[in-house]
């Protein structure tokens, strides 16, 4: 039960940490997106690039190389955005490996506890016989507690793991979509000749 208790504490800690750090507003702040869109819409490409470089984060880590390579072809920029998005996945999936491991091993730990408990029950039966049925049933039910505990920990851990992996992938796709949307806006403004890049 002690290893199961440790696993349950770790699982709760990871779930709480990911719940806090994978908030949509934290990773994709609407005010940053709106500010960048306004800068690009006004043709302030240099300021937009400086803004993304000065505020590191998952979103700006994807947008910065896209804005920096704004003079390249759309396909080239799209590939850069995809590469930058893939590099952000490990950060978004931080600690999820621990959660997946807990979901896998806690049923096995529970089963191990049950097997060890049953071994003890059968050792008592070998010494005292089966005359005391109440004691035998109590020993077996106690041995089964670890299996039930392992499953109680594993089921929500597995559900949380799958949810957060899906959420991380969804966030990466959203960042890529935003980056490509802003690049499309850059290309449109560049064609209109409103870019003010006198600093370059």
Q: Which labels suit this protein?
A:
single chain; 200 residues; mainly alpha; 8 helices; 0% strand; rod-shaped; disordered C terminus
Question: Can you describe what's shown?
Answer:
The chain has helices spanning 2-21, 24-27, 30-41, 45-54, 58-68, 74-92, 96-128, 133-192. It is an all-alpha fold and 200 residues long. α1 packs parallel to α8 and α5 runs parallel beside α8 (133-192).
Concise synopsis of the structure shown:
The chain has 200 residues and is mainly alpha-helical. The protein contains 8 helices and no strands.
Strand content: under 5%
Rg, nearest Å: 27 Å
Count of discrete domains: 1
Query: Approximately how much helix is present in the residues?
Result: over 70%
Shape: rod-shaped
H and E string: HHHHHHHH
Quote the average pLDDT: 84
Number of strands: 0
Unreliable parts:
194-200
Helical stretch count? 8
């Amino acid at each position: 039960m002690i290893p199961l208790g440790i696993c349950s504490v770790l699982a709760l800690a990871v779930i709480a940490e990911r719940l806090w750090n994978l908030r949509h507003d934290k990773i994709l702040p609407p005010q940053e997106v709106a500010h960048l869109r306004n800068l690009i819409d006004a043709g302030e490409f240099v300021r937009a690039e400086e803004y993304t470089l000065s505020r590191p984060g998952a979103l700006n880590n994807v947008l910065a190389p896209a804005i920096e390579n704004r003079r390249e072809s759309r396909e080239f920029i799209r590939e850069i955005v995809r590469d930058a998005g893939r590099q952000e996945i490990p950060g978004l999936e931080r600690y999820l490996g621990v959660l997946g491991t807990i979901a896998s091993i806690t049923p096995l730990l529970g089963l191990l506890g049950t097997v060890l408990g049953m071994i003890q029950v059968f050792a008592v039966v070998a010494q005292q016989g089966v005359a005391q049925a109440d004691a035998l049933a109590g020993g077996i039910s106690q041995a089964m507690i670890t299996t039930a505990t392992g499953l109680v920990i594993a089921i929500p851990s597995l559900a949380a793991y799958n949810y957060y992996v899906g959420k991380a992938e969804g966030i990466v796709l959203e960042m890529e979509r935003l980056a490509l949307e802003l690049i499309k806006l850059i290309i449109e403004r560049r064609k209109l000749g409103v870019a003010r890049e006198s600093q370059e």
